[in-house]
Amino acid sequence: MLNIARKELQSMFASPMGWIILAVIAAMFGNYFANGVTDYLDVASGAIRPAERFGITQSVSQSVYGSASFIMLFAVPLLSMRLIAEERRSQTLPFLFSSPLSITDIVVGKFLGLMIFLSSLILYIGLMLSTLNLWSDIDFGYIIANTLGLLLLTGSFCALGIYFSSLTSQPIIAGILSFIVSFILMILGRFFANDPTNVAGQFSFSTHFQSFANGLLDTADLAFFILFIITFLTLTIRRLDADRLRG
Amino acid sequence: MANLTVEAIELTRLYGGRAAVSDVTFTLQQGQVLGFLGPNGAGKSTTMKMLTGNLAPSAGSVKICGIDMIESPKEAKALIGYLPEMRPLYKEFTVDEYLTIAARLHNVSSKHIKKAVEHAKERCGLTHMSKRLIENLSNGYQQRVGIAQAIIHNPMVVILDEPTVGLDPIQIRDIRALIKEIGQAHSVIVSTHILPEVEMVCDHVQIIDKGKLVFNGGIDVLKQQRIGNKLLVGLRQSPDVAQLAAIEGVAEVEAADGLWRIRFHEGSQPHEAIVQAAVKNGWGLYHIAPDQTSLEDVFVQLTYHDSATSSDLPKAA
């Protein structure tokens, strides 16, 4: 399993693509971070009445994490689309199938590989925000909750991406499909915002991400993301298993 | 029985009701090289996919060194090295990187990976290509990487689907030597279209047609079938058929393109008698040679008139 994850990481960094994506995304976050700090300084200089001020952690992090979830929405389909579709196209799946690995190992390994790659970014954001602690007293709990939320959200995008990647041998199609579905799931919450009882609204990523974004660890939301990931990884395993059974 | 490395028991594979492979049963012992022959679409690759666990059989079972492929696939797969028809190469890696990944996936312990990679490269003649990207290698070298990948973990059974496709004659010779070498310690299954290759490399042959095994036996049986007990004789002054047939040991005489094809009884050696008769009667003998049916002919006979010929063939285990 770990060997597969290692292979995926290696192949992501085999071309400049991996480094470029990392660099571009890191630059974006850096930009949001810098803007956040500047905005805060504006606030602190008295543009807003003291009663309405909130802490620096929240003020800066909110914009960074809010944008991070949307950047991931674009980045994950780009990275996940090739995971299985590419192997299908270049006929390398038999190489994995005939090695002593179960299909679960292969799928979870690929998922882990991608997650390790993206976690480095998420941890990087956390570290970047923690640097605020050098000249102020920040709320680490808020950062941890956001990091965890973002990890789970990204994990859900990845699981969805891997599933769509297993359906086709065209990476582009997998990428577009997983982007569309992730996007719908992200904005679903907006449509049903004034109808909290609606079931469809419950499937929205943004609603479930909201509590993490507020620095809250809600087990219901935690469970939602974990179940979502498990469901789509299982579907992927089933899909690949069907390949073996149906040929 | 010596060590059985592969046991295929009544393997059947249905594609939407049509049987691509039906009731294929065979065994392979340690130290044997099995050649797998058959026309296009006969089910060679399908059988190989089932043997390696890439495809689940609709019925029947596969055992590798006694381990059932369906019950404990991980253990069984660890004993196999497989080169599919389409080379499964990750072209963005260098030869070294790719082989290291292959070794790792096949549970070669991290201490031995370097040695295993070196050894596999050496055996396949890839040592000077270590740092090259697989994408930039020629077809033949890519094929070698494919073979190196299949033997890197020193598996008990090596299954190669058309390993010599796209290689130049010298490489083909090297690869054949390599297959023979692997075949001494382990078992090898090779599928191919090139018939003389089978004769050179394998000591066991299976011919499959329309999903059914039509021939399964030692290479010598096939060779015997090929050489047979026939002579081609050329005579300037052709005598009567009866005169030729009267020579001791001759069973049957027929004319063939200006020559005579003389079939003789098993065990008899009428060559000398024919020459003597020719000299005595002044027939003007100018050609006498064993009449070889080409391997292609045997193959065609077996695959196109399978019901008629396979019963004629001596069944060898």
Notes on the protein architecture:
- The complex is a heterodimer of chains A (247) and B (317).
- Chain A has one domain.
- Chain A starts with a helix and ends with a helix.
- Chain A is built from ten helices and no strands.
- Chain A is mainly α and 247 residues long.
- Chain B is of the alpha/beta class and 317 residues long.
- In chain B, 36% of the residues lie in helices and 28% in strands.
- Chains A and B meet through helix 1 and helix 5 of A and helix 2 and helix 3 of B.
Provide a quick synopsis of the model.
Chain A has 247 residues and is an all-alpha fold. Helix content of chain A is 80%, strand content 0%. In chain A, α3 (56-80) runs antiparallel to α8, α6 (103-130) packs antiparallel against α10 (219-246) and α7 runs parallel beside α10.
What attributes does this structure have?
A: mainly alpha; 10 helices; 0% strand; globular; B: 317 residues; alpha/beta; Rossmann fold; Alpha-Beta Plaits; six-stranded mixed β-sheet; four-stranded antiparallel β-sheet; 28% strand; elongated
Tell me the layout of helices and strands:
The complex is a heterodimer of chains A (247) and B (317).
Chain A: H1 2-14, H2 16-47, H3 56-80, H4 82-89, H5 93-97, H6 103-130, H7 140-167, H8 171-191, H9 205-213, H10 219-246
Helix pairs in contact in A: 1-6, 2-3, 2-6, 3-6, 3-7, 3-8, 4-7, 4-8, 6-7, 6-10, 7-8, 7-9, 7-10, 9-10
Chain B: E1 4-15, E2 18-29, E3 33-37, H1 44-51, E4 59-64, E5 67-68, H2 73-78, E6 80-83, H3 95-105, H4 113-123, H5 139-151, E7 157-161, H6 169-185, E8 187-191, H7 195-201, E9 204-209, E10 212-218, H8 219-227, E11 230-235, H9 241-245, E12 250-256, E13 259-264, H10 271-281, E14 285-290, H11 295-304, H12 306-312
Parallel strand pairs in B: 3-8, 3-9, 6-7, 7-8
Antiparallel strand pairs in B: 1-2, 1-4, 4-5, 9-10, 11-13, 11-14, 12-13
